[in-house]
Amino acid sequence: GQIVVADEISCDTCRFWDKETGRSMDKDIFRFDKGDLTKAYEEVAKRIVPEIFQ
């Protein structure tokens, strides 16, 4: 009997760049063949929710 509203934050729906280096950490890595997409997505996850990697 409750309505729940949710949204998604992911590398596919947002733009992420490293603050220090300006390096892209989102879907542009795949789109422009800029490197290892899995490693970039994992790095974003570690920065947003570090406790899931403990």
Q: How many extended strands?
A: 0
Can you summarize the main beta sheet? none
What amount of the residues lies in strands?
A: under 5%
- Poorly predicted ranges: none
User: What form results from the Cα inertia axes?
Assistant: extended
Order of helices and strands: HH
Could you report the average pLDDT, rounded to the nearest whole number?
Answer: 91
Distance between the termini: 36 Å
Count, helices: 2
Give the helix proportion (percent range): 25-40%
Radius of gyration: 14 Å
SS-based class: mainly alpha
Q: What does this protein look like?
A:
The protein is mostly helical and 54 residues long. It has two helices and no strands.
Blueprint (SSEs and pairs):
Blueprint (H helix, E strand, L loop, with lengths): L27 H4 L5 H12 L6
